[in-house]
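Onboarding guide, step 5: your first structure request.
Type a short instruction followed by the sequence, for example:

Predict the 3D structure of this protein.
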Amino acid sequence: MTTSTLAAAQRAAAPIYLDHNATTPLDPAVLDAMLPYFTERFGNPASVEHGHGNEAAQAVERAREQVAALIGARPAEIIFTGSCTESNNLAILGFAEANPERHHLVTSAIEHPAVLEPARALAKQGWQVTVLPVDGDGRVDPGQIEASLTSETGLVSIMGANNEIGTLQPLQEIGGLCAERGIPFHSDLAQALATGTVDVERDSIHLASLSAHKLYGPKGIGALYVRSRRPRVRLSPLLLGGGQERGLRPGTLNVPLIVGFGEAAAIAKRTANAEQKRLRALCDRLLDRLRIALAGVELNGHPDQRLPMLSLSIEGVEPLALLRRLREVVSLSASSACATDKVETSHVLIALHGDTARARQAFRIAPGRSTTTEMIDLAADEITEAASALQGMRRSA
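The system replies with structure tokens like these:
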């Protein structure tokens, strides 16, 4: 099949999905694992005195073991929540409530709003909040973190991988700095789980926020890792009620979604390393093709220490105009999917490049498990055609 024939066939089918940083499709094996718990295995895991409840409780504990294994944690250290956003709020606000003796939080300028907004809430309550800059590749300098730590520092919160530019942070070095000073370290790992490279013990992480839907699992389920020893981290719940999840997250557990999270974690643990290498090769192939075909293609984020995704800025190409042209054939993202009610330059790109054309022109491409070489080549052709047209319009204006 020729490229033109393939393009025509793709236009008649569903668009190629290259926005896996926003969400991932549900893995069929995950769906299969979940389905019985929507129907015949419907028990409440709190009702362990009878068979239906006990069956559900066992399923939850198996999922807890699977999620824990993915990050090197103990099963009892996994608290299921409704989302990674909830986990971030519980980690930061719950820690602040339970540990009132120190009132200083250190974080970075490129964190997800689910971290930055709780940080702002603490600042309104009198906490000192240090928001550290990042370098031009989107990395936090561990030396700056070290310099910012004081006797009042209660918590450090630095994400594992950025959802918009893909940059990986030096978690082990940051965690070591915190551990040496007895300061708990929290990390939003929503985007980093699929890499299979995080170990909370090795990296000295004390609190970690997790998400299933970035891992080919279901939406509406997250988890929080809470270290239980050396040191044990104390949190206060944000909600009060039935006492589930060690009293930190009350409410009847959503067994089907928890089972799905567990299965997704187990699959990721088996496949992550090989899949990351494959996706990185696809990204390199796409970037090479775009750089040959187009002028002014710039990569945002770290060139090597990154997720297998691309954040690109193309001279003379406004990303929303590009996405509109590609809507029927390729699904891309102009910025984080968590702020789609606003059209404004991403705070992440501003942190890297200031309020510049490069920051305003950024868009991201994130392949996934179903992405093939043929899809990447077609996407490269379509992006090239659309971007060239936009550049031509700009030159003739």
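Each response can be followed by summary notes, for example: The chain is about 40% helix and 15% strand.
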